[in-house]
Prior knowledge:
Blueprint: E1 7-13, E2 22-28, E3 37-47, H1 49-56, E4 75-83, E5 95-99, E6 107-111, E7 115-117, H2 124-147, E8 155-158, H3 164-175, E9 179-184, H4 187-195, E10 200-203, H5 209-216, E11 222-227, H6 234-239, E12 241-249, E13 271-274, H7 277-280, H8 284-299, E14 307-311, H9 315-323, E15 330-334
Parallel strand pairs: 8-9, 8-11, 9-10, 11-12, 12-13, 14-15
Antiparallel strand pairs: 1-2, 3-4, 3-6, 3-15, 4-5, 5-7
Helix pairs in contact: 2-3, 2-8
Amino acid sequence: MSTIPEFQKAVLFHEPGGLDKLKYEEIPVPKDLADEEVLIANKYVGVNLFDSLLRSMEQLPSWYPATYPIIPGFEGSGIVVKVGKNVTKLKNGDKVVYAGSSTFTQYTKVNANSVLKLSNDAKDEKLAKYTALVSGGLTSLCLTNEAYELKKEDYVLLYGVGGGVGLVLTQLASKKGAHVIAVASSDEKLAAAKHYGAEFLINHKKEDILKRVKEITDNKGVQVVYDSVGKEVSDISFESLAVKGTWVIFGFASGPTPPVNPLLLFQKNAKLVSCTLYNTLTSPSAWEHYYDEFSHVVEKDGLEVPIEIFPIEEYSTAIAKLEGKKVVGKLLLEISS
């Protein structure tokens, strides 16, 4: 095992703004680990839209635990190079994937509970695959099991199906026997959704979403809307619901969902719920349960998404492509040693 350096390179931003605010700078490698933490030498990290949303905010959300400078990134994979004294399930040299924060670095420290050990012979292709799937996979399992327990023959409305979470959700829903109504901004993204099991396709730049949903469901509406878009589709989401339908909010790509009058839900006996990964995975047993489920759907059910990899030095190009809505699948950054 090579010596851990004193300094590392990281992508970060010191203030809100555009792509020009992202910098590639030298920062210290974390030295002190908590008893339950591990230090990971990253090989791949995932690029997420939330990183861009966070950078655009003039004021950070009260629930976000970091202060400037902020290092983007919420998942990664690599090799364990240091372990806290209470960590028993991981050791130096283990190949792993993890969900965490501040991952656009050469080295990331993270709680060991949020780390999934991979086989010692795992090749780079497997590390990349698991990195591309881990956040979207865990989130989608939470959405389809806890936020709303998806059932066979349910009609499901999904937005943003061209991205990593959208394509994972499409696969999980279709494998459960649900009828997936996929919404995206391009025919290319919809073709990917169809490949992964979507039954009905709506290009929102060409078609009226609500009108098509009503046609598809014979005016009955859908049993569940999984809404990662927020502001721009809030009215559509509610109007698309069937009686006793469930509206699940788990993102706000277009801005926060406007306040909803609870009396509105009376019209359909509807439910409004939210789901965030880190409010679901709040205990070691929860992490273990969901990682078991995640490993099963990857290895046994063949869960996958298209992957495009950029070297971390080209982070600006990768993020610009994501923000330009030109990505089908998942973008990764490969970390130089």
